[in-house]
Amino acid sequence: MSVLLGVVVFTERLRPLQWVAVGIAAVAVLVLTLDHGRPPWIALSLAATFGLYGVMKKLVAVEAAPGLFLETALVAVPAVVVLSVLHSGGEGTFAAAGAGHALLLVSSGVATAVPLLLFAAAARRIPLSTVGLLQYLTPLMQLAVGVFVYDEPMPPARLAGFVIVWVALVVFTADMLRHARAGARRTSPEAVPATP
């Protein structure tokens, strides 16, 4: 989704191999959709909303920390209302489940803020299409935890989707590295002819 938004909104140009990588990733989504029997609406909605978040981060000319402060300020009042309603109904756990629980809840804010700050800083510096393909690392880590830590099953269709996604990432990364090396060769001092 981020790659497509980068192309549509910011007119980022993808090289032919990058388009191949996008096509391969689309095949992975198709394989998983066919296996599941219907489109993965929740996953597609998350991809769309996070892609739009990346677009907004790139459009708004605010540094990472002030931007995160503004985002937090916007959701602070609704969050306080929800927490107040939960607490008044006896469902709040911040003060009721002990100091360790309260510390974990507070530290979850830090665990959320640091990646958001890094994402905001990166989204302003690199093409959105690159951000989009790098976002496959998070699902990979979640998949690894599910399979290797929680012994979740890995049916053949899910494994096929996983492998296809990684083929797309390898193609995209190989093209980026090849392009970066070619650019470095063009700008290296040896490549520039000496002036008389």
Written description of the protein model:
The protein is built from eight helices and no strands. The chain has one domain (2-184). It is globular and about 60 Å long. By secondary structure, the protein is mostly helical. The chain has helices at residues 2-10, 16-36, 41-59, 64-88, 99-125, 128-134, 137-149, 156-187. The longest helix has 32 residues, at 156-187.
Ranges with pLDDT <50 over ≥5 residues? none
Content-based structural category: mainly alpha
Query: Please, how many domains?
Result: 1
Oligomer: single chain
Distance between the termini: 51 Å
Report the helical percentage. Answer: over 70%
> In this structure, how is the largest beta sheet organized?
none
Radius of gyration: 22 Å
How much of the sequence lies in strands comes to under 5%
Average pLDDT taken over every residue: 82
The SSE order reads: HHHHHHHH
Shape: globular
* Helix run count: 8
How many β strands by DSSP? 0
Secondary structure topology:
Blueprint lengths: L1 H9 L5 H21 L4 H19 L4 H25 L10 H27 L2 H7 L2 H13 L6 H32 L9
Helix pairs in contact: 1-3, 1-6, 2-8, 3-5, 4-5
